[in-house]
Design goal:
Elements lengths: L1 H23 L7 H13 L19 E3 L6 E5 L9 E2 L13 E3 L5 E2 L16 E3 L8 H6 L7 E3 L6 E2 L3 H5 L5 E3 L4 E5 L11 E3 L4 E4 L14 E3 L4 E4 L13 E3 L4 E7 L11 E3 L4 E7 L11 E3 L7 E5 L8 E3 L4 E4 L3 H4 L12
Parallel strand pairs: 2-4, 3-5, 4-6, 6-7, 7-9, 8-10, 9-11, 10-12, 11-13, 12-14, 13-15, 14-16, 15-17, 16-18, 17-19, 18-20, 19-21, 20-22
Antiparallel strand pairs: 1-2
The structure holds 2-acetamido-2-deoxy-beta-D-glucopyranose (6 copies).
Membrane topology: Single-pass type I membrane protein
Keywords: Glycoprotein, Leucine-rich repeat, Membrane, Repeat, Signal, Transmembrane, Transmembrane helix
Pfam families: LRR_1, LRRNT_2
Length: 350
């Protein structure tokens, strides 16, 4: 009897507690205004992405991250796809998310006609924006150039045409820019004043000309440079091998005519990925010049000509990928035994 009574009492106080919590919003982190905005965003995107967003606590919803202390939404990852279709996104719907730092809308089939993107200049915390795989095209550029907080901008495959919009972007302090798989043409403009730049990908466009006087060597913070799959020609500026922060250098699939020697990359000791493949390579290079490159994993030196000699000697590091198609090789016999991590792409054409 008294046992039952205790149970009932306990259950009653629990119910009271729950009622009080939901009535007062005690413990609720989500801001009402932001929750409403999220519901609106959900409705706008309902054709493209199914979001199980319900209830009051938006901070516990999938793809939503809140600041643990203030409860403001700081991150929204709505990237999917790529999805077919075209969504006229109303960009002003995002404005109540004033503390938003990172937003991905990758692959949602967004077209620019929805507009209102210039209003994002009031999202003063927005640092990371991923609009890759949408049909936003050039019309978005002038709007984004007003979002002065942006640091990382991903516009891979977004139907952007014409010249690289360096002028617009260098007004921002962008650190990472991905413009790969667009329809960019013309030559690489002068980049030497873009001092914040850490990573840029221009892969898979129709860019041409030479890169020798584009100021690349002034970019002391440059970590990633991907120019693969264009029509660039000529040599590289020799100073590029002095960029000691460079971890990824991909110049593959171009029309470069690179005159190489063992000293070229000697000082670029942070390199993890170096691909010069599918260009015309010339000269002699000993891979012993990479002895101090303790992070090097991928080394691709396949050439489209027949005048490039590579001395393949034992290295005090383990490569994952080594491509040397068409190179004239001088191989130390024990090299293969000492490289036990080499994977599929190991490619000697003797
Ligand atoms: C876009 O959203 C805002 C805020 O929700 C609303 O006031 C405005 O009418 C919408 N514009 C269009 C074109 O739907
Ligand atoms: C960009 O897309 C809009 C529709 O979203 C279209 O009206 C405009 O012509 C496109 N611009 C270019 C340069 O393709
Ligand atoms: C670059 O592309 C634009 C837009 O497609 C075109 O009008 C222009 O003629 C192209 N320029 C060059 C140099 O090919
Ligand atoms: C675009 O390039 C940047 C920098 O190289 C990289 O971090 C990012 O993952 C790339 N984006 C996509 C969609 O591959
Ligand atoms: C690279 O840096 C070294 C040391 O600072 C310097 O002596 C050399 O001239 C530089 N090479 C190029 C090609 O700029
Ligand atoms: C590697 O670094 C050491 C010490 O700085 C230096 O003496 C040596 O010449 C370097 N080797 C190569 C191949 O650059």
């Amino acid at each position: 009897m008294s046992y039952n009574f205790t149970v009932i009492l306990l259950a009653q106080s629990l119910m009271l507690l729950l009622l009080w919590e939901s009535a007062s919003g005690f413990g609720l982190r989500c801001k009402e205004e932001e929750r409403r905005a999220l519901f609106q965003i959900k409705a706008e995107l309902q054709q493209q992405i199914e979001l199980e967003w319900k209830g009051m606590e938006c901070c516990s919803w999938e793809r939503v991250t809140c600041d643990p202390i203030t409860g403001h939404v700081t991150r929204l990852d709505l990237g999917v796809g790529p999805m077919p279709g075209s969504i006229l996104l109303n960009a002003t719907t995002f404005l109540p998310l004033r503390q938003l730092r990172s937003l991905s809308l990758s692959g949602l089939g967004i077209t620019m006609a929805g507009a209102g993107f210039e209003s994002w200049s009031s999202l003063s915390k927005l640092k990371i924006l991923d609009l890759s795989y949408n049909l936003v095209n050039n019309t978005i550029i002038s709007s984004l150039a007003k979002v002065s907080s942006l640091r990382v901008l991903d516009l891979e495959n977004t139907a952007i045409v014409g010249n690289i919009p360096v002028k617009e972007f260098s007004a921002l302090n962008l650190e990472v820019v991905n413009l790969s798989k667009n329809w960019l043409n013309g030559s690489l403009p002068y980049l030497g004043d873009w001092s914040s730049l850490k990573a840029i990908s221009l892969a898979g466009n129709s860019l041409d000309g030479t890169i020798t006087s584009t100021g690349l060597c002034h970019l002391k913070n440059l970590e990633e440079l991907d120019l693969s799959g264009n029509f660039f020609a000529g040599n590289i500026p020799p100073c590029i091998g002095n960029l000691s922060s460079l971890t990824i250098l991909d110049l593959s699939d171009n029309q470069f005519h690179l005159k190489l020697s063992s000293s070229v990359f000697e000082r670029a000791v942070s390199l993890r990925y170096l691909s010069l493949s599918s260009n015309l390579l010339e000269g002699t290079l000993s891979i012993s010049s990479f002895s101090n490159h303790s992070c090097l994993e991928v080394l691709e030196l396949s050439t489209s000509g027949l005048n490039f000699e590579v001395e393949v000697v034992n290295l005090p590091l383990q490569l994952l990928v080594l491509q040397l198609a068409n190179c004239i090789l001088d191989i130390e016999p024990t090299f293969l035994y000492s490289q036990y991590n080499l994977q599929g792409s190991f490619n000697f054409h003797l």
